[in-house]
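Hi P.,

Sorry for the delay on this. The queue was packed all week, but I finally got your sequence through. Input first:
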Amino acid sequence: MKERIKVYLYNKTVKEIDMTDFAYISEDIFSDRTDIVKVVLPEGVEEIGNNAFENCVRLEEVVFPSSLKKIGAEAFVDCINLRKVNVGQSVDVDVSAFKGCYNL
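Then the structure:
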């Protein structure tokens, strides 16, 4: 079975998203979504684009795969409730990736 992005929503539902190419999470793909509380990215994701999760104000947790290599500029900017991330030491994280995430 193909891996999927798992998105946990505020109303306690889970959405699984199929993408043809998991290597890159494109810019702005989930920005301004106020219903997302948790995201689990599958193995194979190598890069998260700029502003991919910008202003996801209810987002509390992101589970990154070991395949992740880069997190772009302001990827999680202003995710004010983000509390739990585990980014590997070898991941290239832009200095502004978590700007405004005061609970980290």
